[in-house]
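We store sequence with structure; for instance:
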Amino acid sequence: MSGRWKAHSVLPGFGLTLGYTVVYLSLIVLIPLAALFAKSATMGWAEFWQAVTAPRVVASYKLTFGASFVAAAVNIVFGFITAWVLVRYRFPGKRVIDGMVDLPFALPTAVSGIALTTIYSQNGWIGQYLEPLGIKTAFSPLGICIALTFIGLPFVVRTLQPALADLDKELEEAAASLGATRWKTFLRVLLPPLVPPILTGFALAFARAIGEYGSVVFISGNMPMRTEITSLLIITKLEQYDYAGATAIAAVMLVASFALLLLINLLQWWSVRRYQGGVA
């Protein structure tokens, strides 16, 4: 008789929470995305293909994905160094620097764009020294990469910090006692368990950069075929009341972004399996 009664959890059960999850995701994510594809489907295939493969649109694709990839790759290197310093060392002002990492989260993107444009323009604090060297920063693809690097750094640092804190220092000491060099210890002992969080940080920074608008629109100069990102092009289409063209470009960006993120997640899953298998 007692076997028929089950102890109830204080928290809601699976069915209730799953129902809330599906409803919430439908209202916030699935329905808006479905509306996006439904609107772009009002165009004929030939019209859709012409809208998403126009030379100006293709140029914006290349710039957006290329600059986002470069910015995410740069953030992996310097974000790893920043997270390593914050986790492994104690020094005066550490909490201040740790708080400054989240500054791109707190600043409105428009403020970030204006600040970066002011600093890297021809007469800016840094731009005035780069201009005589022939390095044009503001209103160039380089400026776009700088803006995307700025807004993507916290994603990498905050993803790597817990992983670095969980690393067992005894493994490093054991490797050193066995005669391993610092470089070999890093490659063979420290790096393998950090590959999944590194890929996660890269994916987050890359995804954030692809959809960025506010901080880029000021520093890019918005020159078609040169410094025009896809987000700005979509806004331009909307201002011209070309809703179908805007949703068509947005649908392509959505599919491409999802495919890239899926690939990165597969690489992350493979690296976790490979590391766990190696440890076993």
In short: The mean pLDDT is 85. The chain has two domains: 11-40, 44-279. Residues 63 and 229 are 6 Å apart (CA to CA).
